[in-house]
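Risk mitigation, structural track. In case the binding assays with oxa(dethia)-CoA fail to produce interpretable data, a predicted complex structure has been prepared as a fallback.
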Amino acid sequence: MQNAVITGVASYLPEDVLTNEDISRMVDTNDEWIMTRVGIKERRILKGEGLGSSELGYRAVNELLRKTGTRPEEIEVVVCATSTPDYRFPSTASIISEKCGIKNAFAYDIQAACSGFLVGLQTASGLVKGGLYKKVVLVACEKMSSMTDYSDRSTCPLFGDGAGAVLLEPSEEKLGVMDAVIHTDGVGLPHLLMKAGGSVSPASHENVDRHEHYIYQEGRIVFKYAVSDMAASVLDIMERNNLTMDTVDWFVPHQANRRIIEAIARRMGLSEEKVMVNIEKYGNTSAATLPICLAEWESKLKKGDNLVLTTFGAGFTWGAIYLKWAYDAK
Ligand code: UT7
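Fallback model:
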């Protein structure tokens, strides 16, 4: 079996910035609480009538195609990870494909909440490893502001909008997605969800009045699961692949809370400079956090570097991927 390697990465963050000061004018909070409890200073917001997650996603994919010198018609599959699709149907992947001029691919969405990129990377790389496809785009795009309740101080400081995309291609070299440990446990449902707008509780005046079309999160409970489950899967993947704190070059964690990231890095015994953290600038962009990090650190990554990616999200769904970076920055 051949390997599936990432041959390019790109991201897109919308221009508008929402600062902690701005949020302090909406709800009873302050910069000090948000910085010490979560580690976020500001986040980006997609503004503009009629613009959804595909607007973010297509810009990331266009940049990816430009950077990798790939023509849209060469792409065979587009997988989009999002919890904030443009519509209930059709897929956001189909809209992104149209906007990018990708005409020879099939396209579909996957829903794994904040773990969407991790789950997407494992499944999309499977399409390449199996030998069926040679050019697969995985894009994660989230307009989190569309389901954030800006009257709820317990959730509104946390989320931001953004997108990231990678190109996956086959390789004979021992690089790319080496191993994955991914779990789902439905015990998470009551603690993190959007209660209305799905088939259980279709949109109605009543549930909109109750703000049930926004993110609902029991933060403290999610925090505990996030730390212990991500740490366990990271240690598991390190052990399975004989990785140590010295042989891991980069740790790429989901950006939901700086304290969560620090707790896991401590358990791995990793020094700070190996940990990708940009939560301060962008907040939690759900499925998009990992590719946004990869794009930001791309210039520092070297061929053969050992990366450990980890996420935790609604479901609950969480896990870790061991990725061997496949190229030196140009
Ligand atoms: O990406 C998907 C996975 N999600 C996560 O991994 C998120 C996990 N959870 C968290 O990151 C944290 O639980 C939060 C950041 C959501 C909350 O932080 P916390 O330290 O767990 O705070 P808490 O909910 O326990 O609240 C502590 C106190 C409460 O006051 P009392 O009851 O102690 O008097 C809250 O009312 O902080 C209060 N509080 C706030 N105060 C100022 C809650 N939100 C705010 C706020 N500003 N924005």
